[in-house]
């Protein structure tokens, strides 16, 4: 686990897809070199969520890019996705690992430093593929988040863990490099790609920050 998590990580948001369909945004991001895609659907029903997951899995399979599902293990299993991203109030990650098996990619959001300390009390070497710092910067994409970690927060977590770190929240071309330099292995991006007129080019530009 862990060796797959590097580079640009697209988190989908259909209302932000102003110029292209969701499937087309994902396809262009794949052409641009995205390394992971997470399907995040907060408002849709289970049937539509499942159909979207199947559609994106079909788009990504030729590129060998993993598809993760936000929160929903049932959708992950039904659609044959590659794993799940879990928040602090979702199904416990240990149960997700038990159900999905060792080959699934499982990531966990940390909203505060206390979340990390609690995780370490449960298991100092948790079988997780990455930890997500959420949010790094204030963002309009998610409004119910705790105070931003900032670059110093990313640095703090980098000193505490060997697990890959995914940074999410307010990340764009102008600040991507400094987030990587602070210790992030992967940049989770929502609006910068979903709302781009050219998602492929945007993904390519963000990917160059890792070189």
From TrEMBL:
Gene3D superfamilies: Aldolase class I (3.20.20.70). It is an enzyme of class 2 (transferase). 4-amino-2-methyl-5-(diphosphooxymethyl)pyrimidine binds at residues 38-42, 70, 109, 142. It catalyses: 4-methyl-5-(2-phosphooxyethyl)-thiazole + 4-amino-2-methyl-5-(diphosphooxymethyl)pyrimidine + H(+) = thiamine phosphate + diphosphate; 2-[(2R,5Z)-2-carboxy-4-methylthiazol-5(2H)-ylidene]ethyl phosphate + 4-amino-2-methyl-5-(diphosphooxymethyl)pyrimidine + 2 H(+) = thiamine phosphate + CO2 + diphosphate; 2-(2-carboxy-4-methylthiazol-5-yl)ethyl phosphate + 4-amino-2-methyl-5-(diphosphooxymethyl)pyrimidine + 2 H(+) = thiamine phosphate + CO2 + diphosphate. InterPro entries: Aldolase_TIM, ThiamineP_synth_sf, ThiamineP_synth_TenI, TMP_synthase. Binds 1 Mg(2+) ion per subunit. GO terms for cellular component: cytoplasm. Its EC number is 2.5.1.3. Keywords: Magnesium, Metal-binding, Thiamine biosynthesis, Transferase. Residues 8-193 form the Thiamine phosphate synthase/TenI domain. 2-[(2R,5Z)-2-carboxy-4-methylthiazol-5(2H)-ylidene]ethyl phosphate binds at residues 139-141, 170, 190-191. Its cofactor is Mg(2+). Signal peptide: none annotated. The keyword Magnesium applies. Pathway: Cofactor biosynthesis; thiamine diphosphate biosynthesis; thiamine phosphate from 4-amino-2-methyl-5-diphosphomethylpyrimidine and 4-methyl-5-(2-phosphoethyl)-thiazole: step 1/1. GO terms for biological process: thiamine biosynthetic process; thiamine diphosphate biosynthetic process. One of its GO terms (molecular function) is magnesium ion binding. Belongs to the thiamine-phosphate synthase family. Condenses 4-methyl-5-(beta-hydroxyethyl)thiazole monophosphate (THZ-P) and 2-methyl-4-amino-5-hydroxymethyl pyrimidine pyrophosphate (HMP-PP) to form thiamine monophosphate (TMP). This is Thiamine-phosphate synthase. It comes from Leptospira brenneri.
């Amino acid at each position: 686990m862990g060796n797959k998590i590097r580079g640009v990580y697209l988190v989908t948001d259909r209302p932000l897809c102003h110029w292209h369909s969701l499937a087309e945004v994902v396809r262009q991001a794949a052409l641009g070199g995205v390394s992971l895609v997470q399907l995040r659907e907060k408002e849709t029903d289970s049937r539509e969520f499942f159909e979207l997951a199947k559609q994106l899995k079909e788009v990504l399979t030729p590129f060998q890019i993993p598809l993760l599902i936000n929160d929903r293990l049932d959708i992950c299993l039904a659609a044959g996705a590659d794993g799940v991203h879990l928040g602090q109030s979702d199904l416990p990650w240990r149960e997700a690992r038990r159900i999905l098996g060792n080959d699934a990619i499982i990531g966990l959001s940390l909203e505060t430093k206390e979340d990390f300390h609690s995780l370490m009390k449960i298991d100092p070497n948790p079988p997780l593929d990455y930890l997500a710092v959420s949010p790094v910067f204030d963002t309009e994409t998610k409004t119910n988040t705790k105070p931003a970690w900032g670059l110093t927060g990313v640095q703090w977590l980098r000193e505490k863990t060997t697990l890959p770190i995914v940074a999410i929240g307010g990340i764009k071309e102008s600040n991507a490099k400094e987030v990587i330099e602070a210790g992030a292995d992967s940049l989770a991006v929502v609006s910068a790609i979903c709302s781009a007129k050219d998602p492929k080019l945007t993904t390519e530009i963000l990917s160059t920050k890792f070189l």
